[in-house]
Design goal:
Strand order of the largest sheet: 10-9-11-8-14-16-17-18
Helix content: 10-25%
Shape: elongated
């Protein structure tokens, strides 16, 4: 009897509710003139015209009454929550529903995490758009170059390539897999959509969906370019002609889901997309977006995805450098939060977490840092563009997760953590967490020398390695014929990753059967193949012309001079006694930007060693290259007398040490130089590569010239 009465009551309430809802919608009252006049646009709310008239805003409605859904319209329904749907409501409708005892919850609004380029603050009369705090464009318009313009159809697929990237690999993305990787892994990119006909993307687009309308629909048109750029960083494949740009995982499959439309990135669209991705085989979900607060359904969707074995990655945000400035959903402990790194440091604008240094990721903690400055990638015009932001950092980690996929989200996340290298500062820090993950397995690998090199007596060379999971320091040994010859170094800090070996002239026998062995206390590795130690490099017979105290030598049109350094191991035979004032080498153009952790330029120190034939150092000279240096001679004061008939060996390299490389004390492994050595010296090549690690600079091939200035001894 009680059960029948309860059913009757529920039926009557449903009929009454349907009647009231019908009245509500039929008699919908827009804001009157006075209400408009006093209205204030809520923070991050979309605007539909210049008078700041408030549009309907997305809300979650806690009801399963079919008539209510039919009358209000449904944006999204969620299979995990049958008594809830999302729809657009005016303030009056929210008030009426509240009077009916129906709860509503505002849907959270999020923004893409590209670094602002259009300015800050509210722009009057829609003169600007495209950034948090700026009005969104009305329906039918898109934001281009910070202004709203009429939306047009996406460009037709190009018949052939009309533009080329500046670099085939995006900034700081190494050829970790030789242009391959990610096969069988699906990466869902929740963003502004994608230009699926881009020559470098179209072969990898497996899904193209839109969650910004009602439900999930076909189509993923990108009218902003952000999603296309992010997708390219993850999995661009260079195109059929191999002339385009490559992402981190060029063989992965793209599941592009548009969640950011003209009105922003709403939480219900994001939640719907996460559910869709989890239900349709995505291994990784990449979200370069964020906001201030958690969303009711996004929280639930994240839990659903995690329970279904999906790895989630999100950008930390561009609200730094204050601690705790990290955005949601990156704040979620089950989501990998990625901050941005520059060429040598963390940009101020990259959001920080509240990491406590315990290497346990909790809420509001950054997990990794990844490249987010001057990132080149695919764009909606079929070409390429540079962008900044943590939006650009997150896809680096998503792509890396794809090529290092370990069969499950949990195992892959742990694997990424195990490969991460401290960026700056050390430890589990609020800016980069575990550090910058790399495509290297836990263990020890000798990188250089790795076989077939010829190293000259008297030269200086970089022994390089990657060690993960060792004791924190390494010992370095030289083997000859497979037998231990000598120990070259001990207790070198593992993360430095490089040791400069000055090969003495009198210690070794010449031969082609040398290897390097490195021991990190747990693992041991050797060079994959043997390398050679040979005679000193070319000896120059110096004959001075008394009428010209400057002399050029070296610079023999070789693009790659032997060895590691500029002028490495160059031997000079003096046929007359001479007192030399200076020694120098010349850069044809820039050597012009040295970035330290505070983002400003600083100088760098260079060292010159002068050795006798037996390898003993006769003199060491140091010179300083100012931060403003933009090409020309780098000179060392020598003021030494050289004897006729004697050979002297000159080597030049960056000031080096276990903890310091740059004069400002930046850690050696993290210190880097933004060098563009175009047309160095005369003849030979033209090299415009950006060199990000000091060890790369040490091993970089150059054309070179050397000048001696001397004063005769009569």
């Amino acid at each position: 009897m009680e059960r029948k009465n309860a059913m009757k009551t529920k039926m009557l309430m449903s009929i009454l509710l349907s009647f009231l809802v019908t009245s509500l919608v039929a008699a919908e009252i827009p804001a009157n003139d006075k209400a408009k006049e006093n209205a204030q646009a809520p923070e991050n709310s979309p605007v539909i015209d210049d008078d700041w008239e408030l549009t309907r805003l997305p809300h979650y409605v806690l009801s399963d009454v079919p008539d209510l859904k039919a009358l209000l319209g449904v944006r999204h329904e969620f299979h995990e929550f049958p008594g809830l749907f999302s729809t657009d409501l005016t303030p009056e409708q929210v008030e009426y529903l509240d009077g009916l005892g129906i709860d509503t919850v505002p849907v959270q609004l999020y923004q893409i995490s590209a670094k602002p380029v259009c300015g800050d603050g509210i722009a009057q009369k829609s003169e600007q758009c495209g950034e948090p705090g700026l009005p969104n464009c009305p329906e039918g318009y898109v934001c281009e170059n910070c202004k709203c313009v009429e939306e047009t159809a996406p460009p037709e697929p190009p018949a052939e390539r009309s533009c080329y990237p500046r670099m085939r690999w995006p900034r700081n993305v190494r050829e970790v897999n030789g242009g391959s990787g990610g096969t069988g892994v699906t990466v869902a990119v929740l963003d502004t959509g994608v230009y699926k006909n881009h020559l470098d993307l179209k072969a990898n687009v497996g899904y193209c969906k839109d969650a910004t309308k009602r439900g999930i629909r076909d189509g993923c048109t990108d009218s902003v370019g952000h999603g296309t750029h992010v997708s390219g960083t993850i999995l661009a494949n260079g195109g059929d002609d191999g002339q385009g740009i490559l992402g981190v995982a060029p063989e992965a499959t793209l599941m592009a889901i548009k969640v950011c439309g003209n009105r922003g990135c709403w939480g219900d669209d994001i939640a719907e997309a996460i559910y869709y991705a989890a239900d349709n085989g995505a291994n990784i979900i990449s979200m370069s977006l964020g906001g201030d607060s958690p969303d009711l359904l996004v929280e639930a969707a994240i839990g659903y995805a995690v329970s279904n074995g999906v790895l989630l990655v999100a950008s930390a945000g561009n609200d730094g450098p204050a601690l705790g400035s990290i955005d949601y959903p990156a704040t979620h402990a089950e989501v990998i939060a990625v901050g941005a790194t520059g060429f040598c440091s963390v940009p101020d604008w990259s959001s920080r977490g509240i990491n406590d240094g315990d290497y346990v990721i909790e809420e509001k903690e950054v997990e990794f840092g990844a490249p987010g400055l001057d990132i080149e990638s695919t764009y909606i015009d079929g070409c390429y563009v540079l962008m900044d932001g943590t939006s650009m950092a997150a896809p680096h980690v998503s792509g890396l997760a794809a090529i290092l996929w370990q069969g499950s989200a949990e195992a892959t996340r742990s694997y990424l953590q195990s490969t991460a290298v401290d960026f700056s500062p050390d430890g589990d820090d609020p800016a980069t967490g575990f550090g910058q993950p790399i495509a290297a397995a836990p263990g020890l690998t000798v990188l250089n020398p790795n076989g077939e090199e010829s190293w000259h007596l008297g030269g200086s060379y970089a022994i390089e390695w990657i060690s993960k999971g060792g004791s924190g320091t390494v010992d370095i040994y030289l083997l000859k014929g497979g037998i231990l010859h000598s120990q070259l170094a001990d207790d070198i800090i593992t993360n430095v990753g490089v040791f400069l070996w000055d090969i003495p002239m009198d210690l070794l026998l010449l031969g082609s059967d040398y290897r390097i062995r490195i021991d990190d206390g747990i693992n041991t590795d050797e060079s994959d193949a043997v390398f050679s130690i040979v005679e000193p490099s070319s000896t120059f017979d110096i004959a001075y012309d008394r009428t010209n105290a400057s002399m050029w030598f070296g610079g023999d049109d070789r693009y790659a001079p032997p060895g590691r350094n500029v002028g490495v191991g160059q031997s000079f035979l003096f046929n007359e006694d001479a007192s030399l004032r200076t020694f120098g080498f010349r850069f044809g153009r820039e050597f012009d930007y040295h970035e330290n952790p505070d983002g400003t330029g600083h100088a760098v120190d260079l060292i010159l060693h002068i050795r006798s034939e037996d390898g003993n150092i006769i003199a060491e000279r140091e010179t300083n290259v100012p931060a403003t240096f933009s090409g020309g001679w780098v000179l060392f004061d020598i003021n030494l007398t050289f004897q006729a008939g004697t050979t002297y060996i000159f080597t030049c390299y960056l000031k080096d040490g276990s903890t310091n490389m740059l004069s400002t004390g930046v850690r050696g492994w993290a210190g880097c130089l933004d060098l563009i050595p175009n047309s160095v010296g005369y003849g030979g090549g033209n090299d415009s590569d950006r060199i990000d690690q000091w060890s790369d600079w040490n091993t970089h091939p150059w054309d070179f010239n050397i000048r001696l200035q001397g004063e005769w001894i009569d």
